[in-house]
Amino acid sequence: MRANPHPHHTDQLNDVRNLGILAHVDAGKTTITERILYVTGATYKRGEVHEGTTVTDFDSQERDRGITIFAAAVSCAWDGHRINLIDTPGHVDFSDEVERSLRVLDGAVAVFDGVAGVEPQSESVWRRADRYGVPRIAFVNKLDRAGADLDTAVESIRERLHGSPLVVQLPIGREDGFVGVVDLLRMRALVWAEGQDRAEEVPVPDDLRDEARRRRRVLEEAVAELHPVAFEEFFAQSAISAATLTTALRDLTRTGEAVVVLCGSAYRNRGIEPLLDAVVSYLPSPLDVPTIIGTQDGAVFERTADPATPLAALVFKVSSTATGRLAYLRIYSGTMRKGDTVLDVGAGRTERVGRILRVQADRHAEVDRAVAGDIVAVIGLKSARTGATLSAPEAPLLLEPPTTADPVVSVAVEARRSAGSDRLATALARLVEEDPSLAVRTDAETGQTLLSGMGELHLEVAVEKIRRDHGLDVAVGRPQVALRETVVRGVSGLLYRHVKQDGGAGQFAHVVLDVEPLDVATGFAFRSAVVGGRVPREYVRAVEAGCRDALAEGPLGGHPVTGLRVTLTDGATHSKDSSEPAFRTAGRLALREALRACRMALLEPVVEVEVTVPEDAAGGVLGDLAARRGRISDTTARAGAVVITATVPLAEVFGYATRLRSRTQGRGTFTTRPAGYALAPDEQLSR
């Protein structure tokens, strides 16, 4: 095994790996990260999640809850390569944190539980990685547990993720007796003796020799089918050499055509060194990923990962620490030095780089510069937010920010003592700056301050952060769901005249609108059917902008409006008094009036719930879901458990975790993911 007890940093881009650890909650991501840091010599003591001594879960809440909440970046070295590693959360409420990390990673290790195989959230992060085209390798963890089986886990990867898993290891021993792996590429055995941190290389055990040969053959055949060079060698020699296999596996991983599967038990420190070797061998360096694309004044440009090109970097996380504001960024091109002035392209402001830190979770090592391909933290940026692009002032380039999902659950928050209101406002502003998937607004009708997020746990963690970090006593009200309004039956030919004469230049705009229902998923569409130039093109754009303004508040309860198409059919202008502002106002007021004339209905957010329960509790759980207005879409039996998939209104999911625990004696689990909006029953308040 190629240990590297004295990490040295190298600026050779070829030797850098930026990767994330992805998985379902509780599959062992954080333990794997801890073991990687330990094996590479970055830490000298193994951190344990259950003891609350991990490096990456350094937030007090993460230690209390035993889960990862905030993506943490760490850096270590292995075999002459620098590995920048992001331990991402697995809980669904923090999926936005995963999304932001995937945006800046070149590769990932997907971790699966050796007993459960592919779980709902591992499927969801896998799909996200597909969307960003992130190459990944798989690690089947917890092989020392009762019921763990590599083949079953690999089969679930094939079935549920539609990947082409290529298994490169054979476990030695089952469950409690799991002591090592056979490396099918080099046909050698690696055994971890009890209490030993390093693997010992030994010949393949006699009783596994035939099975190892058979599996090596299966691997060669699978690779030959997918890789032309390997196919030629296999065809000519009816075998593939270890060197060709390694090259083929690297190519197939990087194109996403196949997934290399390794196995082990992170908790027992078994299988970590081969995993690191696989990361170095198969996952891409910053030079292997496509060039970054950005825009400048509407034109599209490419930048290569070269320290000599102008700087382009993306801020993917901002956190406030005792020492100041920390911005985590991925540098895509150019070099950033301490003291440099950089441009926040989106905001049009310049910022000064105070200090550059190589991050070890909550500990940092200061460096003078960072180059293309690096993931570092910077102190000194006063206003750059998550998703901001930093570039060289003389060569601005705007990179696409990570997408942020709309928050779906809200709670009312207020300081228990009136003196704390201003401090609460500051604390909330800081929270939103750190986590863009949170939103804060004041309800115009109730005057409540509403904090919105991706789920109950997300909001619970946010409120707890305010209590701990700012010492504020905060009262929290029942969550309110974000309703929408939609058009059920439209109107046509609604004429609206906007005429204003009050000294000076007047305002004149006539518009005629048709409003019709549209699929809620599409949201809003606008088109012009005006003929003969009766409304000039720039005024048409102003009418559309006005209509969009009117969507902010619907007639039923002031909720945002979605699911409608507006057609501008006619209009009239005045040679002097018509202007873009006049037509924008006309568009806004016309659509408001039209919506009052339409038949409207309320929409409520719905979520897809996947509940895994023991067979004996399935009946009660199905009944409970039906009582919560759930529509069951699928039930499948899986290894003594039943997996129920249903679409349930979000308002009915509050408190479900507690109910499910009591119905299943704590054995039931569930995950949710947003599934859009559906008509709210009994509340189709037509007008």
Automatic annotation (TrEMBL):
The UniProt record lists the keyword Cytoplasm: yes
GO MF annotation: an example: translation elongation factor activity
Subcellular location: Cytoplasm
Cited CDD domains: EF-G, EFG_III, EFG_mtEFG1_IV, EFG_mtEFG_C, EFG_mtEFG_II
Keyword Nucleotide-binding: yes
First-listed, main subcellular location of the protein, grouped into a coarse class: cytoplasm
Pfam families per the UniProt record, alphabetical: EFG_C, EFG_III, EFG_IV, GTP_EFTU, GTP_EFTU_D2
Keywords: Cytoplasm, Elongation factor, GTP-binding, Nucleotide-binding, Protein biosynthesis
Record-listed GTP binding positions: 23-30, 87-91, 141-144
Family designation: Belongs to the TRAFAC class translation factor GTPase superfamily. Classic translation factor GTPase family. EF-G/EF-2 subfamily.
Function: Catalyzes the GTP-dependent ribosomal translocation step during translation elongation. During this step, the ribosome changes from the pre-translocational (PRE) to the post-translocational (POST) state as the newly formed A-site-bound peptidyl-tRNA and P-site-bound deacylated tRNA move to the P and E sites, respectively. Catalyzes the coordinated movement of the two tRNA molecules, the mRNA and conformational changes in the ribosome.
Protein name as catalogued: Elongation factor G
